Amino acid sequence: MSVEHGPTAGEYIVHHLTHLQNKPMAGVIDFSVYNLDSIFWSILLGVVASFFLWRAARGATAHVPGRFQAAVEILVEMVDSQAKGIIHSAQSRKVVAPLALTVFVWIFLMNAMDLFPVDLFPKIWELIYGAAGHDAHHAYMRVVPSADLSTTLGLSTSVLLVCVFYNIKIKGIGGWVHELFCAPFGAHPLLWPINFLMQMIEFAAKTVSHGMRLFGNMYAGELVFMLIALMGGAAAATLPGVLLPIGHVIAGSIWAIFHIMIITLQAFIFMMLTLVYVGQAHDAH
Questions:
Q1: What is the pLDDT of residues 272-281, one digit of tens each?
Q2: The model scores a pTM over 0.85
Q3: Which of 33, 60, 114, 148 could join 38 via S-S bond, C-beta 3.0 to 4.6 A?
Q4: Does 209 qualify as catalytic in the annotation?
Q5: Is 195 labeled as catalytic in the residue annotation?
Q6: What is the mean pLDDT of residues 148-157?
Q7: Residue 2 resides in a domain
Q8: Which of the residues 50, 81, 89, 209 is marked catalytic?
């Protein structure tokens, strides 16, 4: 009689770190491959964020606010005060402040998907995938979009495009091109190539670090939750009684409580860097 064994620790982690894609990866870099799970959850959470902000705006009243309205008002005031301290153009803040608020709420919700049980959504997807006649062992599903580098770099690239827009809007195309070639070392023609290279390095470094910071923290947090799940599963196979499940729940709860601070902090940092980079686009060199 054959005994079916579960996946090893390595297989478990690899399975949970594999994306649902439109086709198998053809190479190291293949722009025709999309992480469908990241796209799905990003759009869904974006709609959820927009819905809650819309509900708060629609239900706003001049009378004593409810808890939800009060929480949203505190959040809006926090973002607005940060925007005022960084971006001094009131006209620009009309667009940038709501953008920063949207970025914060959206990234917070994407990060918060890490607080759900590791196997909850993957197991649901395995049932759906298997019911459709496919091999459930290949039912991949990652539910934390901000733990996907393509998502975070996409967000940071969008911030870069906003910065380019405001560079051109505030300084004019001629003024911005002049800045690209004449800052930071001066306007001497021999320095133009060096200045331009330094400017391109600065833009690239900002964009990559902006996305990598969020990705690295959320990827590490996701991995810790998987290791806690593995710890509980391994101990359950060796220790009797209820002590192990209790220890597993305690360890997961402690990390989840700590992780609430991480997901909030990372959303705040991404929002603040967005404001800083857009604010720098308003400064002339």
A1: 999 999 999 9
A2: yes
A3: 148
A4: yes
A5: no
A6: 95
A7: no
A8: 209
